[in-house]
Design a protein that fits this description.
rod-shaped; 5 helices; mainly alpha
Length: 107
């Protein structure tokens, strides 16, 4: 998911800069910096968890094609739309690995 990618990149940048500052600092400051570094790691894990919970469960149960068909059917039903003339059936083959779409929602 694009939102997480942007947040994740910014958090990693902050974490890495904090870690580098910790490495360059003297002992009393090193201990002060370790808290924020751990806090950033916790925030990143929470963002991953939130996005995982936003993932449509139908994709896991039904797969992408059935999930899209269900979404279209629900939309027509919810908004009391009538389907027009049926289109010629076209088969679409999507070649993906199982983790392709998890990247959109999990990370």
């Amino acid at each position: 998911m694009e939102l997480h990618d942007n947040i994740g990149q910014q958090l990693i940048l902050i974490k890495n800069r904090s870690w580098r500052l910790q490495q360059l600092s003297k002992e009393p400051v090193k201990n002060l910096i370790s808290g924020p570094i751990n806090h950033i790691a916790t925030i990143m894990a929470e963002v991953r968890s939130i996005l995982h919970h936003l993932r449509p469960y139908q994709m896991d149960l039904l797969g992408l094609t059935q999930s899209i068909n269900g979404l279209i059917t629900d939309t027509f039903t919810d908004y009391q739309l009538e389907q027009g003339k049926p289109m010629k059936s076209t088969r679409i083959s999507i070649q993906t690995s199982p983790c392709t779409f998890s990247g959109f929602y999990n990370y």
